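ok trying again, last paste got cut off:
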Amino acid sequence: MVPTFEQEAADEDRLAAQLGEQLADLAKLRAYFVSNNDDVNVLYLDQWMAGVEDVAKMAENTGRDPEEFYAAQKRRKRAIERLLAEKNGAPPDDEENE
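nice, full thing came through this time. structure:
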């Protein structure tokens, strides 16, 4: 079945909305890293957004040690979990409050 013009337009609108939401989430994540002075994860996001997925290449591009990117992975995971919890209306699991 061939989609109608209206179906294609609705699909494009839905995809544009999803992309906008994803970009907003990435901006929040980046702002979180900046506010926490997490330079390695800011670099990671910048490199990832530029299409670089290999940590060794990220390290080469930024002059950082690859181990810094691996060590930052735990912080990145916690930040993403926090953002998703906030997005889903759950209270953040604040380590600072423990």
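cool. The two ends are 56 Å apart (CA to CA). The CA atoms of residues 52 and 75 lie 19 Å apart.
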